[in-house]
Amino acid sequence: MLLAAGDGKRMKSKQPKVLCEVLMKPMITWVEQACRKAGIEEVYVVAGAGAEQVKQAVSPECNIVIQSQRRGTGHAVMTAAQALEGGGDVAVLNGDAPFISAEVLAAAYAQHIRQHNAVTLVTARLQEPFGYGRIVRTESGEVSAIVEESDATQQEKLIDEINSGTYWFKASFLQKALSHFTADNAQGEYYLTDVVKIARKLQERVDGYACHSTDVVLGANDRKALKMLNDIARNREIERHLSNGVDIPFDDGVIIGTDVHIAPGTKIMPGTILAGNTTIGENCVIGPNSYLMDSQVGDGSSIIASYMTSSTVGCAATIGPFSQLRPGSHIMDGVKIGDFVEVKNSTIGEKTSIAHLTYIGDSDVGAGVNFGCGVVTVNYDGQNKFRTTIGDHAFIGCNTNLIAPVKVGDGAYTAAGTTVDEDVPDDALAIGRVRQEIKKHWAKGKIKKKI
């Protein structure tokens, strides 16, 4: 059960807090993915205002429950009480604590089962526990209370073990405990932390799993804290790839998402952002100042100062600088794409060269094709998109306009400045331009000399 009804007021955001991103991914997505990896199959999400936005951020299998009134964490669990009806065990987590891990969830659950606990809290030890609820234990080591900072005695404030806000419950106990919740406090809210007191009253066992990482307790209530989470996550990912043999000589502006895979020997240069399900092969150079989202790059390729979204690049290809591969672009081995080239929803065959200042959209291009400067595939007539087909080893002259749908055959040649609006046969030359006419002395006196 993920508690995700918090608003974004302190974030100065119009969207729910759990949708604020850490390393380009909503915080609640981090938490759900940890649950899935830990083997938790049925997930309930308790959302408030902005529930539709939250629904878009989690997987379609999640059950969305609306907490119309925000009356505390205990009340949020009450709202999703139907999740307890099947019995078994249930985990309750905060949707804005992105660093909870599958390993911690699994280890805490193993302890929960082994000790036959009604409640197992995930705890951590902090050098500076100020502001967190302290874990009070009995002489035998069981948890006897969670004491909030404002209610703690001087002795209790010295306790360094704190509550992370993640719990495992025996579902039958939590169902029973909900009827014992009271809102007898200044805020008129129901607190989930009261389960410890209720469990002790019902003579049920409560214990805590003390995890080694203190990051599990970290959340964000403002933009400053959110930046801190991003810094931690960014450094983690960079260290992971360095350990795997990726060369990141300078990490200035380098951001690598958690779902990115990079093979050893590849160099990531400053200012590079790798996001989504991106995979990069061996011995590539990515950057400086490149952005790749949901894309794949083969071994030995370079992506220099360019954008690439939902596209693939083969091996030993060179892209950039200042190129853009838009969704649906498939660049084969050995292709060269130069500066100020845009490719969209097109396949570019092996060892084709598109040097500069060219737009290739909705096209199928063969192998060994050469594009001169300023070529445009004219793919849109204002209502529909059409495809252009170019055969192997064709030569497309500078400033050629290819009016789709049109086909240029194998080995065909278009003269510079040609507008092609009908198919060009194999090995043919297409010339489609007005013949040059010279009028001698016509310009004399018509151009004002500035020097």
TrEMBL record:
UniProt main location, coarse: cytoplasm
Location within or outside the cell: Cytoplasm
Region N-acetyltransferase: start-end pairs: 245-451
Pathway the protein acts in: Nucleotide-sugar biosynthesis; UDP-N-acetyl-alpha-D-glucosamine biosynthesis; UDP-N-acetyl-alpha-D-glucosamine from N-acetyl-alpha-D-glucosamine 1-phosphate: step 1/1; Nucleotide-sugar biosynthesis; UDP-N-acetyl-alpha-D-glucosamine biosynthesis; N-acetyl-alpha-D-glucosamine 1-phosphate from alpha-D-glucosamine 6-phosphate (route II): step 2/2; Bacterial outer membrane biogenesis; LPS lipid A biosynthesis
Residues at the catalytic site: 356 (proton acceptor)
Positions annotated to bind Mg(2+): 96, 221
One of the GO biological process terms: cell morphogenesis
UniProt xrefs under Gene3D superfamilies: Hexapeptide repeat proteins, Spore Coat Polysaccharide Biosynthesis Protein SpsA, Chain A
Binding site for UDP-N-acetyl-alpha-D-glucosamine: 3-6, 17, 67, 72-73, 133, 148, 163, 221, 326, 344, 359, 370
Catalyzed chemical reaction(s): N-acetyl-alpha-D-glucosamine 1-phosphate + UTP + H(+) = UDP-N-acetyl-alpha-D-glucosamine + diphosphate; alpha-D-glucosamine 1-phosphate + acetyl-CoA = N-acetyl-alpha-D-glucosamine 1-phosphate + CoA + H(+)
Entry note: cofactor: Binds 1 Mg(2+) ion per subunit.
Recorded GO MF terms: glucosamine-1-phosphate N-acetyltransferase activity; magnesium ion binding; UDP-N-acetylglucosamine diphosphorylase activity
Boundaries of every MobA-like NTP transferase domain copy: 2-135
Protein name: Bifunctional protein GlmU
Organism of derivation: Youxingia wuxianensis
